[in-house]
Amino acid sequence: MKNQVYIFDTTLRDGEQALPSSLSVDQKIRIARQLARLKVDIIEAGFPISSPGDYRSVNTIAQTVQGPVICGLARAVKKDIETCAQSIKPAQRKRIHTFVGTSAIHAKGQLRKSEDEIFDMVTRSVKLARRLCDDVEFSPMDAGRTDRDFLCRIVETAIACGAHTINIPDTVGYTPPEEFASIIDLLFNRVPNIDKAVISVHCHNDLGMSTANSLTAVAHGARQIECSVNGIGERAGNTALEEVVMGIKVRKDFFKADTGINTKEIMRTSKLVREICNMPVQPNKAIVGSNAFSHSSGIHQDGVLKAKNTYEIMTPRSIGLRENRMNLTSRSGSHMVKSRLVNLGYNEQEIDIDAFYKRFVGLADKKGTVYDDDLIALMESRDSSDLQDEYNLEYLNVSSGTGVIPTATVRIKSRGRLFQEAACGDGAVDAATNAIDRVISYDISVEEFHLDAVTHGREALGRVRIIGSAKEGTFTGTGTSTDIVEASALAYMDIVNKITRMKKFGKKATGR
Ligand code: KIV
Ligand code: ZN
Fold first, then answer.
1. Considering the chain, what is the average pLDDT of its residues?
2. In degrees rounded to 5, what are phi and psi of residue 50?
């Protein structure tokens, strides 16, 4: 494709590192498979040296996910680069992304290194990475605040040592678009070997400028954008993939460029990432927010009824909304349900259809029509980690109402034994969690309680997210059900199980 802008997805690296606790290998693989369906060009799958779990995730993705280049991140040091090379080894197409802070603030303030020492690190690390992998990317971290002459010298050296992609990060989201464009222009004008590399950009959103910066860089010749689904990432996040991809598509006349993204997979990817990462999206979020295609005012509605393009610059269909109106009900067979799950990106071999189908029918009986969002929520709530739960809620009965003292009875199963308790509370949820506390007393204090409807309608699945703290730390628990008290009890049980795992196996075992 002429003038292709490569989409480098860092949801699983920059995005994941900003979550309160890490994703399990299984969760990362599900996201990586969906990114492959979306047709991103490069998946930055993790930072292999950072933990054994991250190494394992990158390595498993390298073994199992086909299509995109699988990339691992490494600091500009020997051990990082060697570990990274090892973890991506099974991939058909692989890349090492190595970086070092080049601004005075980073080099002197954090790394305590002189410009000459940084220069030396770049030379050695890019050469080493090239010996271990044909495809190497180099990032001068905090490029936005790096001395321009030094930046040009560093970029020239990295290319001379074999880097094929030079990524220019606005690490702290500090550089306004015009200034960012001037950096890109400077590199094209001043670095003699610049034609040997693809110029990439990696913009953070601290001042809300990441999409503007990335698109401006494309207009000035950058041909790779680093971004994440829903814009998740450090602090205020990274450039949102969906925004830059649709920006380039909708304004092709202006950018005169294109991406290879299958935009009809955008919405599905966004929802999967919300579910798995437990990161809701604000309703007015560009492209994927629930209001992004709603028209509220009378004037707007009137316009859209007469001619859609009065207030709609892209169709909902172009991002995969309102496609697949195949309604599943309790009359749909397990084959149909399975094929829908496969269609949604789940791996056929990993679907325990008998167990899932029982839960599907339970939901369909309560709800009537089961939509894709319901299926995803049901799949993702089956077990939020690779680890078995110690305690399972077998039974919950709650009575509450006007003039009634809210009371709950719970039955909890653990290792074949049943424990039953009852308790009162200030409301139905309080009574249920008090009853659970009587069985397993971890002294959890509920810091935050969020309830979202996963889909529309009175029988929508409700998802409860509780942030609770105990002496072992702070945990996020989620629960999904058509009954919000049950969803709350399940979310509370999720926290109980995470504390139990933490007590048994330590921090790395908690999952989300
Ligand atoms: O924000 C940043 O500078 C990064 C680098 C590792 C590219 O994430
Ligand atoms: Zn970053």
1. 91
2. -70, -30
